[in-house]
Write a sequence for this structure.
């Protein structure tokens, strides 16, 4: 929250409270408000769909965001940078922000996506652990957007792990000669990396 100074007639200083929000920030609940401009309701919670200033209208009981530019949802083909949060047997959960070509802002209200083990490499992959680990930062492409979630792929020479963290001590690793080396412990690990 920030305060925006304004002067009233007569020179008196007035501080107006302004709350800046980002896409996905919670604005309120559907019991209190109706989703207004640049906002959406999901499971009884109203979220911001764009970056801007939170706007509550008590008279019409709406809450929304005043934004210069709206944010579109992720679409097939968008590049997404994300952090691997969980690895299961056949699927990984990735927290991400999609970035369309030529833009620098995220384009989705959701911040979770799924990566299937079959979308790591063009060839057969038996387990995630051979190609990525929890905590790794990846560059992926949005494969499809369905009502149940956004699905990513790492198939492509420009996609893969861009920052790896040691699975033993969680330190940032250095990439050299096809391997990631931990500077703090003797760990050496492989990942699926984008071609330079």
């Amino acid at each position: 929250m920030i305060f925006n100074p304004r002067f009233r007639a007569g020179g008196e200083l007035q501080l107006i409270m302004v709350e800046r929000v980002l896409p996905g920030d919670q604005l309120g609940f559907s019991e209190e408000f109706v989703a207004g401009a640049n906002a959406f309701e999901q499971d009884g919670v109203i979220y911001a769909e764009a970056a801007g200033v939170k706007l509550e209208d008590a008279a019409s009981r709406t809450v929304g965001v005043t934004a210069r530019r709206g944010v579109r949802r992720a679409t097939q083909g968008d590049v997404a940078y994300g952090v691997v949060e969980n690895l299961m047997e056949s699927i990984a959960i990735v927290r991400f922000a999609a970035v369309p070509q030529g833009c620098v802002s995220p384009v989705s209200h959701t911040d979770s996506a799924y990566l299937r083990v079959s979308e790591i490499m063009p060839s057969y992959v038996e387990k995630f652990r051979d190609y990525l680990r929890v905590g790794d930062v990846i560059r992926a492409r949005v494969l499809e957007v369905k009502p149940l979630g956004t699905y990513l792929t790492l198939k492509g020479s420009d996609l893969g792990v861009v920052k790896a963290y040691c699975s033993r001590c969680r330190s940032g690793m250095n990439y050299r000669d096809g391997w990631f080396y931990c500077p703090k412990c003797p760990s050496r690990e492989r990942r699926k990396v984008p071609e330079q």
